[in-house]
Amino acid sequence: MSRHYLRVRTGEDRTSFYDEITKKIIGELEAGRVPWVQPWGTAAATASLAMPKSAATGRQYSGINVLILWGAATERAFTAQSWLTFRQALSLGGHVRKGERGTTVVYADRFVPVDEKQRASETGDEAQAIPFLKRFTVFNTDQCDDLPSEIATTAPPPGLIEPKVEYLIKATGVDFRIGGNHAFYAPAENYVQVPPPQAYFEPINWHRTALHELAHASGHPSRLNRDLSGRHGSKKYAFEELIAEISSAFSCASLGIVPTVRHADYIGSWLEVLREDNRAIVRAASQASKVADYLLGFLPEKVIDMTTERAGKEAA
Questions:
Q1: A GO molecular-function term, please (predicted)?
Q2: pTM of the predicted model, to two decimals?
Q3: What is the CA angle 279-52-298, rounded to 5?
């Protein structure tokens, strides 16, 4: 894979990447589209509901890469959520079709230069690591020929969704109350409240809302310990809403839930945050991945085996 990415060495290059991603997300929000929900709400979206993953290893992408690959699949009407590098396609006996345009994803890491290690050893100070991004290009399996049939096609996940969400709610131990006429998480009292499913025009959206509020609850000091002190209307509050909304989308995709597009009641505040900080969407997506992983970690294999069965076969 090393020949198929560019290492971003300078702060200016990293800033350019953040600007590029943030500009695209802002454009979607200004057009009234929510990028992390839109893949399930348009006629152009033909890809099956799933988290993007490596077709070679079965490993799921996370953070900002999920949004990048969902956006590419929607924009270019791919039918699969599986991705490969050029070399991986060859190693599986297939190849990327001539003229196909790849999608750039990123990997964040840190390294310590040799001279810094030397300085630290001489002074006894802690060596300072330098953050960097690796960019590399992946191709959707729709862009490849001659791949094995089990990799070239992606079946939609099975449909026993509601029992999984009910199990997850109980397993988290969160005080989860059903009732009232609006959904919220109360940090001080540490409980979630969501209206009953029958209160929703489309009951499937109850599950999305429940996962959104559970995402907020994950920030409690006894769980993932995020800063939940932002007041309604503040940028800190908008950023936490951004985390919860994206996390809900990630969890829905992992569980096979197909939500409809959310009313854009927070779009204005999100735009304000994104315009001020070009790294906000990257940080929010990274936090959202941590939240989704935390919540889904409460589901034992016997509960989610139907969802993961195919992924396990492909990774074998």
A1: single-stranded DNA binding
A2: 0.70
A3: 90
